[in-house]
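Need residues for this backbone.
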């Protein structure tokens, strides 16, 4: 794996998170995501295979091979859509806005625009 590939991989991850607030939890998420993607990428000779794999798991998120019930609960609470309350831990990043479903965010924006339009009239 060459340096430019690693830079592209890390840059892609950082780019996906560029509009988000950089707090302690976001930094941990970034570290885990970068480490997991580099780990998986090192196992491939055909990099296109990375797209279909989801290297993130509770073990990577918490750094534990043996998870407790509290760890699993914390993991699922973190990966929960604030709008609908459903878990988002198995949703592809392309369909998430932070930890919320893209669909839920779009519906919320649609309601907001409709309300705003009604107020003007």
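Answer:
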């Amino acid at each position: 794996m060459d340096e430019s590939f690693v830079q592209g991989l890390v840059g892609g991850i950082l780019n996906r998170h560029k509009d988000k607030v950089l707090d302690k939890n976001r930094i941990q998420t970034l570290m885990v995501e970068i480490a997991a993607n580099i780990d998986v990428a090192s196992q491939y000779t055909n990099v296109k295979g990375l797209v279909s794999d989801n290297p993130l798991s509770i073990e990577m998120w918490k750094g534990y091979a043996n998870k407790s019930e509290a760890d699993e609960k914390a993991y699922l609470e973190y990966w929960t859509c604030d709008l609908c309350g459903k878990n988002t831990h198995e949703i592809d990043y392309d369909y998430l806005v932070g930890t919320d479903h893209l669909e839920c965010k779009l519906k919320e924006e649609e309601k907001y625009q409709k309300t705003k339009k009604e107020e003007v009239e």
